[in-house]
Amino acid sequence: MDQTDDVLSKAPLFAALNDEGANALRASITEIRLGRGQRLFAEGDAGDRLYVILSGKVKLTRTAVDGRENLLGVLGPGEMFGELSLFDPRPRTASAIAVTDVVLAGLGHDDLRPFLADRPEVAVHLLKALAQRLRRTNDVMADLVFTDVPGRVAKQLLDLAERFGKQGDDGLHVHHDLTQEELAQLVGASRETVNKALADFAGRGWLRIEAKAVVLVDVERMQKRAR
Ligand code: CMP
């Protein structure tokens, strides 16, 4: 797993470990590869493993009884998921589906538990990641109540830009790899309303729309619109 060591060592789980600890944890890792669109697990499944993304992107979704989907988040390299059922051993709270081809490091909950008990610094890092997720979830909930759809679109694009953006001469390129439908599920609005907001931003010259990507041309205006 040499080429992926760098990603792993920056993940919250490993950041707190010294070399000896990191090597011990690495020994219990299994590598999993998924093709685009492949499902790793479904909401309601029993969960016995947490995952760190080594390359590619994974979406976490929940499905309503009428079949509508809500996208809780899109995660990329270095980010972790599947930890809720580690701390609270109950079924998976969301489905995990590959948005691109993906390579994952899987760690059994049973292999991890002794680390949490013996090395409080690992538990602290995991708690930090959980706290960040809770903060973000609270922000998303408040935005659903207080912020209009264009504001939420601007916010989500800025969040994706922070994690996946690459600065080019002509703007900040954000390859989110999401379809229009998935972007709408992430914003929590209809595809039509989200597309209208995107077209409006494009018309004002704040961004350019590309296939499964946007180029943010005027980040400052987007930040103002997201407030
Ligand atoms: P688990 O419940 O084991 O499996 C589904 C995973 O989705 C869950 O652990 C978390 O890692 C992840 N998850 C759940 N809710 C969110 C959220 N709001 N944002 C990002 N990830 C989430």
UniProtKB/TrEMBL annotation:
Cited InterPro entries: cNMP-bd_CS (IPR018488), cNMP-bd_dom (IPR000595), cNMP-bd_dom_sf (IPR018490), Env_Response_Regulators (IPR050397), HTH_CRP (IPR012318), RmlC-like_jellyroll (IPR014710), WH-like_DNA-bd_sf (IPR036388), WH_DNA-bd_sf (IPR036390)
GO MF annotation terms: cAMP binding; DNA binding; DNA-binding transcription factor activity
GO cellular component term, pick one: cytosol
Pfam family, one: cNMP_binding
Segments passing through the bilayer: none
Residue ranges constituting the Cyclic nucleotide-binding domain according to the UniProt record: 13-133
PROSITE patterns: CNMP_BINDING_2, CNMP_BINDING_3, HTH_CRP_2
SUPFAM superfamilies in the record: cAMP-binding domain-like (SSF51206), Winged helix' DNA-binding domain (SSF46785)
Domain of life (superkingdom): Bacteria
GO terms under biological process: negative regulation of DNA-templated transcription; positive regulation of DNA-templated transcription
CDD domains: CAP_ED (cd00038)
Residue stretches making up the HTH crp-type domain: 147-220
Keyword entries, A-Z: Activator, cAMP, cAMP-binding, DNA-binding, Nucleotide-binding, Repressor, Transcription, Transcription regulation
PANTHER family named among the record's database cross-references: CRP FAMILY TRANSCRIPTIONAL REGULATORY PROTEIN (PTHR24567), HTH-TYPE TRANSCRIPTIONAL REGULATOR ARCR (PTHR24567:SF74)
Protein's recorded name: CRP-like cAMP-activated global transcriptional regulator
